[in-house]
Amino acid sequence: MAASGLVFSSQRGAVLAATARVVDRRGYQATTLAEIALEAGMRRKDVRRLVGDEEDCFYALFGAFFHQAFALVQEQTREVPWPQSARDGLAMFLELLASEPVYVRACFDGVKALGVDGGLRLETAVEAFTAFLTPGYDALLDVPVFQGQLIGATVVHVITQHVLERRIEELPQALPEVLSIALIPFCAAQDIDALLAPTR
């Protein structure tokens, strides 16, 4: 995930990139607006004008990073038939996260520090995961909709464990586990295995 291609290509984006680096280096609790401004090469008043205070900078970073990552994945898999699109989308998303460990660590460190407010941020990620499953629900009307939320929460948990254990770069290797979690209500085990089989 090239930083200039997603979140970090504008002056505001430079603030978000600086926020990620400072939070990753110092931790969310110790991050100040002054440090973000210094990292971005700007004055504090300019950072405040562009984004806000340090909390605003974190919220903007989390929202922009995950929103644009999901948007890119959905764009790339729009013409792919389901459930192959779910497989390709999840694989691409895990690879995107693995390619930007600084930003992922910063996002999850802030979520952990913010408690309830951080949990609300994770809920947005859970909701985004359910978008991968929408075609499955359209085809199988007897699958409870709340199951998508459980699946999304479980997938986020897998990602969180990789972050906490400092194994972000290994996230692409979690695709079999994540895909099985996501598709088990919709596909037989052998069909999931077929999706994971290497293409020739």
Give short descriptive properties of this protein.
single chain; 200 residues; mainly alpha; 0% strand; elongated; disordered N terminus
What can you tell me about this protein's structure?
The protein is mainly α and 200 residues long. The protein has a domain at 60-196. The chain is built from eleven helices and no strands. Helix 6 packs across helix 7 and helix 10 packs antiparallel against helix 11 (189-196). The protein is elongated, with a radius of gyration of 18 Å. The model is unreliable at 1-5 (pLDDT under 50).
Quick synopsis:
This protein has 200 residues and is mostly helical. The chain contains eleven helices and no strands.
The number of helical segments is 11
Distance linking N and C termini = 26 Å
General shape: elongated
Low-confidence stretches: 1-5
- Please state roughly what percent of the residues sit in beta strands, choosing from under 5%, 5-15%, 15-25%, 25-35%, 35-45% or over 45%: under 5%
Q: Report the strand count.
A: 0
SSE ordering: HHHHHHHHHHH
Major β-sheet profile? none
In angstroms, what is the radius of gyration? Answer: 18 Å
Give the helix level as a range of percent: over 70%
Structural class: mainly alpha
Whole-number mean pLDDT: 86
Give the helix/strand layout.
Blueprint: H1 11-26, H2 33-40, H3 44-50, H4 54-76, H5 84-99, H6 101-114, H7 116-130, H8 134-139, H9 146-164, H10 175-183, H11 189-196
